[in-house]
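Incident review: delayed structure delivery

Summary: a single-chain prediction request sat in the queue longer than the usual turnaround. Root cause was a stuck worker, restarted by the on-call engineer. No data loss occurred. The affected request and its eventual output are reproduced below so the record is complete for anyone auditing the incident later.

Affected input:
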Amino acid sequence: MLFDSLLFKQRLTSPPRLPHLGNLNMSWKFLVVAGLATCLMLESASAGFTLFHIRNGNPGGTGAAPVTSSDGLGGYSIAITTGGQKVGLGSSDMDGKKLKSIDRLSITRSDTYTGPSAGAAVAPYLNFWITDGTNFAVVANEPSNAAFQPLFNNGYDLSFSDLADKTAKIFENDNTAWLPNGGVGLTFADLADFTVQAPTASQLGTGWAGLGTGAPRELVTNQAYGVNWVFGDTLNNYVPGVSGAYSVSNPSVSTVPEPSSMLIACCGLFAAGVHTRRRKRASVAV
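Output delivered after worker restart:
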């Protein structure tokens, strides 16, 4: 009867209105609240990656440019043909969030590769810009790290727990005094509470000691992104598949909200529940 009544009301109303939460039975309330909670718990950013050139080939970045293309549907072709060339797929969707807030970080690789020299050890590898609010550095996984290679399975599908105990290399800043243990012998867990944030183009243009041409920023414009999948660099870690180009797709990142955001969401749901209950009591009293 309740369902028929709701349908009748919707037919008489233009445009159709969603029924008030207080009019739904407990099963429907549970589904609505569960759906809202799921949306609040995970902040997805699957479409927020941009393809950009970091550096041309040797010598000194003055050589040939890498050849790249996008199909517009989340697929990318990246041909690294000589040493020095470097390309990134970057996203700003994690900027302002802590490194430990990674829920899922993934990318699919579908080119035909022939083993460690053209597979898990080479690409893509990860670069994060991190900051303490004043200083910036790049934290990266080492592509040849034997502990990291088992995570490769036609690409990567990672959570922060996958990264936590892995070696974290620090690049692009000679000043490491602001980092734990002076930036030496670190894992990703040691950097969990640092904020992911790319420097501005102006900051990168001014530069600082240790900032090099291989930093994950767009050639010429200095546009940078907090999270980067990186291809190329040296002979040992740029080798693509036998087709001559990396073929990758669907780079994505999602994060778990900070505890304060979760508290606000819970308070909002609680307030909505109290409001619904009061409305129901008021209607019964009348």
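Verification: The radius of gyration is 24 Å.
Action items: add queue-age alerting; document worker restart procedure.
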